[in-house]
Amino acid sequence: MFVVYFHQRRAAFAAGTLLLGLSLCGCATSTGSSLMDARAEMPARPKPGTYLPVEDLPPPRKNPAMTADERSKLQGELMAARDRQAATAKAQGGPITDPVKP
Question: Is the dihedral of CA 64, 69, 72, 77 positive or negative?
């Protein structure tokens, strides 16, 4: 009795596996299109000019972004802020690191 039941379950499992395999194989087949038609299904390339080429640089500026005076003023402000933060960290007992000066 057990042997017959075991063989029936085994046959049912084999049949289920076979049906599952056949159904999955049906999904893998193409619907009449060949590999040559794959190019026709590809999306169109973007129009030329959408992105700038790597070697295409913008023209040089007519006026500089910052004058020499503005640059030196900004550097002075940044160094003062760095020194204030270092002094605050030292007063609070935080990690003391020597600031890197340019």
Answer: negative
